[in-house]
């Protein structure tokens, strides 16, 4: 085994005593259970360095064959945000008025969401997450990528966690048609929009739905 291909685990893994491990796990849970999705954002600017480090955290996520099939397009330009907002609301109006989606619309009523998406203009950052479905070789042929959706999901979860840990708020937003993002952001054909992650400080008057989580015993089994 070549030393150039592998690192000693001691360079990456930090061992703690049982007491410290239990304390760290408990404290992190307490921090993360405060995380809530926010729909009302302040226009207060966020230093770019904070977002960059959150993205660096996301990029440490494991991925199939270490392909790292993600691209994060960070949008702060007001004119580009305006384009995204306009296209998204066209699609949302179509979604909320289509007979085929009425059951889903009914399910959303408890969260008080609607076709209006002002956060796309007010929040300082829209992080558009693209999944690379396959690679493009210099000869034009496709290179197969593995476990793309799983890899992107893990990286996105880590990004949401990092944003919360930095003292910011986020919103996971997935219009049911997202192809317009490729056009606006000039992304290649091998990339598919996965999500718009809205990031910034919550507005002073922001509120969140009084929801509950499923009981731990209902979602967990030990075998």
Describe this structure in words.
- By secondary structure, this protein is an alpha+beta fold.
- The protein has one domain: NADH Oxidase (3-Layer(aba) Sandwich).
- It contains 8 helices and 6 strands; from the N terminus they run ααβαααβββαβαβα.
- Helix 2 packs antiparallel against helix 6.
- The longest helix is centred in the middle third of the chain and has 20 residues.
SSE blueprint and pairings:
Layout (H helix, E strand, L loop, with lengths): L17 H15 L15 H11 L11 E6 L2 H20 L4 H7 L10 H4 L2 E8 L1 E3 L5 E3 L3 H18 L3 E5 L6 H6 L5 E10 L15 H4 L4
Antiparallel strand pairs: 1-2, 2-6, 3-4, 5-6
Q: Biggest β-sheet, characterized? A: 4 strands, antiparallel
- Could you tell me how far the N terminus lies from the C terminus, measured between alpha carbons in angstroms? 36 Å
- Parts with pLDDT < 50 across at least 5 consecutive residues: none
CATH class value: Alpha Beta
CATH superfamily: NADH Oxidase
Q: Please state the CA-atom Rg, rounded to the nearest Å.
A: 20 Å
How big a fraction of the residues is strand?
A: 15-25%
The counted number of beta strands is 6
- CATH fold descriptor: NADH Oxidase
Largest sheet strand order: 1-2-6-5
Q: Decide which structural class fits the backbone.
A: alpha+beta
Shape: globular
Number of domains: 1
| SSE order | HHEHHHEEEHEHEH
